[in-house]
Design a protein that fits this description.
The structure holds three protein chains of three kinds. Chain A is mainly α. Chain A contains three helices and no strands. In chain A, about 70% of the residues lie in helices and about 0% in strands. Chain A is elongated and about 65 Å long. By secondary structure, chain B is mainly α. Helix content of chain B is about 65%, strand content about 0%. By secondary structure, chain C is an all-alpha fold. Classes of the chains: A mainly alpha, B mainly alpha, C mainly alpha. At the A-C interface, helix 1, helix 2 and helix 3 of A face helix 2, helix 4 and helix 9 of C.
Chain lengths: ~110, ~550, ~240
Amino acid sequence: MSHSDHHSEGPALGHVLPIKMLVGVLVALLLLTGLTVWTGQMNFHGWDLKIAMVIAGIKATLVCTIFMHLKWDRPLNAIFFLISIVFVAVFLAFTVLDTYENEVNVEALIESKR
Amino acid sequence: MTLDHKRLGLMYLWSIIAMMFLGGAFVMLIRAELFSPGEDFVSADTFNQLFTLHGAIMVFLVIIPSIPAALGNFVLPLMLGAKDVAFPKLNRMSYHLYVIGAILFVASMLATGLDTGWTFYAPYSTSDSPAHRAILYAVFGAFVLGFSSIFTGLNFLVTIHKMRPPGMTWFKMPLFLWAIYATSIIQILATPVVGITLLLVAVERMLEIGIFNPALGGDPVLFQHMFWFYSHPAVYIMLLPAMGVMSELMSTYSRKSIFGYRYIALSSVAIAVVSFVVWGHHMYVSGQSVLVSVLFSAITFFVAVPSAVKVFNWIATLYKGSIRLTSSMIYGLGIIWLFGIGGLTGLWLAALETDIHLHDTYFVVSHFHFVMVGSAIMAFLGGIHHWWPKFYGTMLNEKVSLWGAGLLFVGFNLTFLPQFIAGTQGMPRRYFDYAERFEGYNQISTVGAFLMGFSILLIVINFLRAIRSGKPAPANPWGAVTLEWNTAPIPDPHNFDDAPVVGDPYDLSIFKWDEAEGGYVPTRPVPGLPYIALPNADSTESQH
Amino acid sequence: MTESSATSHVHDEHVAHHFDDAAQQFETGKLGIWTFLLTEVLFFSGLFVVYSTLRNNNPEVFAYAAQFLDTKLGFLNTCVLLLSSFTFALGVRNAMLGQTKALGINLVITFLCAAGFMGIKYQEYSHKYHEGLLWSGSEHSVFKANLDDVHPEIRAHSSVWGDAQKLTPEFRHEVGQFFAIYFCLTGLHGIHVLLGMILIAWLLMRNARGDFGPNNFNAVDFGALYWHLVDLIWIFLFPLLYLIA
């Protein structure tokens, strides 16, 4: 490994995460997973999925910001990732809306065939 | 094998031209068959395979890669002032994936025919019809080609973000690069969706998973949502680079700075983003709900706006410019007409009331040929003519180039203008036969198609001749200011030894035509411009 | 910033010729891998769209089908994958610090976790195969519209056969759709786990050669990012498939 003097290396490139932080995140993730299972067994009257997704979102945020280093990266990387989520949301929104709007027609058709 | 982006670009160029001939051969057969109604020399079944292969090959193997993979690969690093793209090995892999995809498509031709139309609609494409193996090959071929496209887009996007030279801020970048950047956004976000869609078609064929099959409780309209979520942005993958080429052509050959630089740059990104929210306009009659159809229709009208912005800016660039009618410029001027028609006819299709009648007629066929061929392919050819001197260090025979461009333009209009009328009068697309009253339109169209075929042949033979026996090219035959011209007549393998000095890429006043020298000379000393070498007296014919 | 000599002569052997320096190479590579992860998100999104439309339009189907998925195994798999993300992150740390041996150990543990995940998956899949808990189009499915189409082996051995007979044909098809999307989602995810295992094996090989250190750890860093994405996707899959009340 050469040590040419005008190349920046070491701390600037390799940001070493403290072990305690990584362990902390793992523990938090495992606890949140347990929480997901526990709340999954309860009935929240239509809010089940939303609660599960919120917890999943928190877990995802932990993985992204710490394990995947986004907290210390250039913002561009995080922006890219969020943009992909936005486009997925657009895809979901229109498609689910369309099939939802059509369900009335589908059900009417099934009824008419009985 | 080479890692040099320039050589990869040329390999793509010839592969794409070869595929263009393959797809073109199929359409010659189609137009010959359609010259008169009734069965002439192909069966209905064969006809279905012909238009499917024509469409699939042209879309996936020709137009989508064309400008980005061939011209983009060659020009982007040079125009950016970089030594190569960000990931040269990935770039080479993109080319290999292209070849594999092409082989799979050719294999699908040799297996029992593929007759679903290039859109592979379920449940026909997923049901166990006799065309079993062919569909699988084609679907896997398209899947592999998708990765080629994704990796190219990824490479270009990262290169533009991270490898601009000092001084080249975003708004100092040439518009061709803005166009490639916007295209890359689409390639990266949209192509994976068609990837999973095609994978599901393959899985459905092989395992009968049933997601799109109504007989198993599946939803065929869901296929269409997933397919068009990619395929609509895909048409902008085809169009945006063409618009990038247009900006370069308009500016260079009017000897004028491009009008409205910032608006053109931002409109590229705007088109890329908005293109993701309009896919349902392909599905008005498929069973899509009324609410969603209305939403898509409204947003589709919006996407026309940034495109129109570009057209107005190009025309404004021409105004009071010193127009030079080279073959590249002929292509460019032709595009203003062709894209104008293509874009405007899109509005009839965006509107629900008219689309109900025009859907799946020749009106649609003509519309998309005006934009995909009349704009994208014309820009591809115009770009080849424009950057050709850098490819092999030779000049094309300008006279033949002019003839090629002119004949192609005439042939194109002959082919496709009658199709609009036939479409509004009710002639359906993808039909093997048609009513007697459409015969006249079809005959004109067929004549035009053969003229187009002849023109393309002429153009490509002109390319081939110029490789060996073209006149040696000067470093900057067009007096352009973007960085790729600031290189030797054939650029060094490493492009630039040092980061080039960046100025205004559209300050064409730097160069003036000097009759005595027979080329462009600088009007003032410009730092970092070593390759303003003048042509030898005997190496140019008159460029006017 | 016009000095140009930095690029031409003295070159860090780990920096490719077309980059100015190691920092640019690292930043570029990072953006590259994140862009690739973007494409993976969009790749899976198609399946999430299929899932969402199905669930939105047939919530009762999902409620019914949920009983057939073993929450305990799903929970176990989630924990295994989270642990593997942790060990891979430790590995990245090791690479940056030049701790070759520790990196090797952490990569091996990650690999074993991944293998464990696949093992549990295999268990779940074979159980479903034997019970006929498959998509309607499959020969071995118990969820056929026409009950006569159900394979005699399934009729004989599946504990679900009794229940399946009491459902309407349309409902059976809908449950079949649930399993179609279940297998597509977990299957595609599983393929990505396998690909990740190949990646980890490759990194192990390179580490054995002594490739990695404070000046050269990009491959480990970027590989870990891929693996974390695989974990991320499972973080969402788990509640969506296994925890439907």
